[in-house]
Structure formats: C-alpha cells, structure tokens
Fold these 3 entries.
Entry 1:
Amino acid sequence: MTDKGYVLEEGNRLNNFAVEPKVYVDDKVNTGFTNYAETINGRFAMIGFVSLLALEAFSGHGLIGFLSSL
C-alpha cells in the first residue's frame, strides 16, 4: 500500500526506504565554454587589469617592482 511517498508494510509498519526518488535528467550542458562562464572570466580579467593599473599609478612601480619592494 503506497500513499504520499511512504509505504506501509504488513502489520502497518512504516517503510520510508521502499520509495525510490524521482529521477530528473537535464540534457542542457552547463560546463565548458558557455556564454556565462566567458562573461564572468572577462569581467574578472577587466577587474584585474584595472587593479594593476591602479597599483602602478599609486605606487609608482609595476607589479614585480611592488612585490620586490615588500
């Protein structure tokens, strides 16, 4: 006897493990070179480039010079 996701065995014992979960298969691939991943990578690259320009403007040294002076 099955009722709303649980099974009652003989003697009205509850058996939660007798019901298998519904399987959902997504055919859409979300890995690799997707438009979203490329957009995010481009934005992070722009942030890094502007940060390096700001570092050079404020410290007067490039990245290597700044790190060697620490």
Entry 2:
Amino acid sequence: MTLPNKLTVILFSTIIISACNDKKAESVIEKNSNDTIISTQIAKTDESLEGVYKTNECDISLEITKTKDGYAYFLKTNLRKLKGKAVFKNESGEKYLVLEGIKWDEYEGDISNEEENDSITDSKTETLEPEIPVGIDAGYVKDTLIIQNYGNSMNSYTKISECGLKYIQLVKRK
C-alpha cells in the first residue's frame, strides 16, 4: 500500500470512529406564538430538565415537569404560586428555559436612547409608558437555572421582586 492510500485509510477510520462516538440527539419541534417552527436538538445524554430547583438565598422554588406538549412549570415564592408552560430553547449554543405567562414586576424600559426619542415627539404626543414584558427566561447549564432578576439604570426592570438578588441561581435538588 502506498503512503497516500495509508493516509486515506487512516483518515476514513478516524472519521468512522468519531462518528460512532457522537452523542445521539432527539429533535424537538415547537411552534412559537407567531407560528414559526423552532427545531431544537437536545442531546439524550443531557440531564433531564424535570425536577425541583431551589435557591438558598431566597424563598423561591421552581418545579419543571414534562408534558405531552413539552414542559410545564410551577413557581412558588413567599407571595405567589404560578403555573404555566415552560419552553426549552437552544439558540447559538446557549440553552435556556422560558417561563411563559409571568408578568415582570417592574419595567421602565430601555432609556439609553431616550433623548433621541424625546426630540422626535412633539408637544401634542403623549409619552407612553413602556409595556411590561411577560415571560421570564432562565439560562440553563447542567442542573442550574439562572435568572437575571434586574437590570441597571439604563434598562431598569425587576422580574421577581420577592428576591433582591441580581442573579437568581436555582439548583436542581436530587
């Protein structure tokens, strides 16, 4: 066997071996509110999202359960109990969970371009209050969900006022 043939055999052998070692993935197809189809690859070796997540710093627990349509959540704080649909997303390598239907506690909007907007409006136009967003997203890494709970002076908001932490870290309990 000549050298180029040996290299070809080694190259193909390496490709075949690495292909056999790839993790299996299941495809999840969802429709968002705009009827756009979202296809997400979830590696079967990833831990299940299902379970109870808690934080030690605040009185918050989040239970994620699998349903026939995806996932559901039950969020419990010292002031409220909320249920709804939880949507798992994997975009640009970032995994996160969206807890649909939860209205943010406070939202003043992005004021970084407020001066530009002020110069456009005339005296007859009323200043509209920004619409309070609905839905809380949480970054997902292995067995931890992280919610950025509030913003800064340029984009002031609070998602869950029962907890004063900037980042609420919810860890899955075993």
Entry 3:
Amino acid sequence: MTLPLSRSDETDPARRGRALGSAHAARIRDNIAAYRRLFDAVRVRPQDLRPYGERALAEIERWAPHLAAELVATAAGAGVRDWEVAMVNARTEILATVGATAEGECSTAVYVGGPGAPHTIQTWDWHDEMAAARTLSAYRVPAPRAGGAGRTVRAFTEAGVLGKIGVNDAGLGVHFNILSHQDDGESIGVPVHAVARRVLDEAATVAEAVDLARSARVSASTVLTVVTYDGRHGEAASIELSPRGTAVVRPDADGVLLHTNHFLDPELALGEEAAAAASTHPRYKRLSDRRELIVSADPARWLELMRVHEEDGAPLCCHPKPGLEFQHQWRTLLTLMIDLGGRRLRYHAGEPCTATDDSWNDL
C-alpha cells in the first residue's frame, strides 16, 4: 500500500503551503474533525481549542516565522481557519493539557557501530482512526545559511502537520517518540512537530539538531532520535525535550541506541509522568534483550526486532483491542526505516507482523 504524497520544488513557504492545502484539502479537513473527536473524548473543553490553536500559531511565529507562514497558507489552501491547522499541529501539546497518556506509542532502534550506513527502524503507533491522515512529503527548502545549496527533505507526517519523521539530503534523519513529564501541559509552547520539521529542514549534524531543538520552548515532552551519515561515519543521539529541559542521550559502547516512551536521562526521568505509557518499559526491555537484531546487516532482522506482541511480553507490534472506545484503540499504523546511505525513507503501511518483501515502499 502506498500513501498519499505531496511533492514540491517551491521554496517560498506561503506558495508551498497554499499548494499543499489545496491538494490535500479534504484530508486536512477530515484530520481536523478526527482530532476534534479525540480531544472531546479525552475531555479537552471545546471552547479551549481555538485559544490553544492561536497560541500554538503565535509560538511557531515567534520561533520559526517561515513555518508559521506555511501553516497559514496551508489553511487558506484547504479552506479552513489557520487556528484549526495550528490546533492539529499542536495535538501533542493539547493532549498534554489534560494528561492524556500515550499508551500505545512508538518504539525506535538505531545502530551506528559498524561500517557503512546506520541501521534504523521505528514503529509509528497511533489511534486507529487516524490512519487516513498518513501523508508523505518531498520538498525543497532554501539553504540554511547564505551561500549554501538548497536542501531536499523526504518525510512522513499527518495531513496538515508540519513534520514528524524523515531524512534530508545532507544525510540527517529524524525518528520521533512521545514522552510524558509532570511539567507537561501547563501552557502551549512550540509544537514538537514543528521542532522535528525545523531539524529536518536546517540541520546537517547531530550538534546542529541539538542546538535547534534546545532553542524551542516546548510544553510537551518528546524525543527526537537524530541519525547522520556522511558517507563514511554514522552518528546518533536521542534529544529528549521537556518543559523541564533538554537532554542528549548517546548510543551505548556498541553503537546501539534504543527508545520507547520514557526518559533515559536520569534527571528528566525524575519527573516522569507515572501514568503514561505503561508498556514503555517492557517494550524497551524487549528491544534491549534482542538488540543483536538491529546490529545485523540484514534489514529483515531489524523488522524481526519489532515483531513482538503483547502476548509475547510487550506490544512493539501494536494491535487494537476489541471493545475499547476509539481513544483507547492503538495500532502500529506505519513501520519505517531511514536509509541514510540512499537519503530515503522505506516504509510499510502497517504493523511489522504484516510486512512482506513486496509491501515496502521507498520515498
């Protein structure tokens, strides 16, 4: 199964945004409606949604004006209000205001210890109802600094959302996992999806990614696992973001870096939101116990790493549970590998256990 794709060589944010909004108008409107239903189900007050969206847009405008311009133009192209698109971009921040947990969230594994390009794989677990919002994007951005060349980015996101998981042609990739901290949700800060987008657009090294991420005032916790490859050497770090601060977690001595949905930094872990993602520690342990699979040179072994279900001890491969309300229905909606050598995304539009040799697509 292939996913909807938006391609653009337009480097002007407003023109790119308007074209994106026009091309995906129905899907953006549907995604806004789906998030309204989710927010209602977890008891976010409907009268708060517009102020939250407006605050998110103001925070993006302050931190990255060009992304705000793209967002406003996307809304215009889709025929919706700009605060509604900002609301969807701030879905993590809005969920944090009511302490909504990320029970079925994502798992990431990276290896940078051997010759050749790094090995990476991630599951994207989210509410089953959001499957229709899955979107791929390939676009050009201006040079991050004067005198440089423009950059191409290939990314996966949700309809109307600025960014999430992807790779740029400088050889930098980003994986994305939600975290939960006791300080989350006290306000609306820079949406973490905007942070991921700016890292993809502007960073070429782990150090540049860390500096960009640290410059954002966030109100919800997330980890961006950044991986780079210059054709000879790989580097990786998990950048843990929270309102309390930012921490950088490096691979272990063997070059393995794993992440689920709890903080690995010991200081930030002291503020862990205990109710969030009860499966995160079992998932992390299963990844750790089977770490030799991500070290293997065979991508089929990386996929095998993720083929673990709840009955096997941890839902790395996540399936919805019959009878639960939709806000509690979680599914692995996408399985992704970042091919740093080829500067491309490889994806299977479903759970690891349903992947076959013929179900993978490249962007």
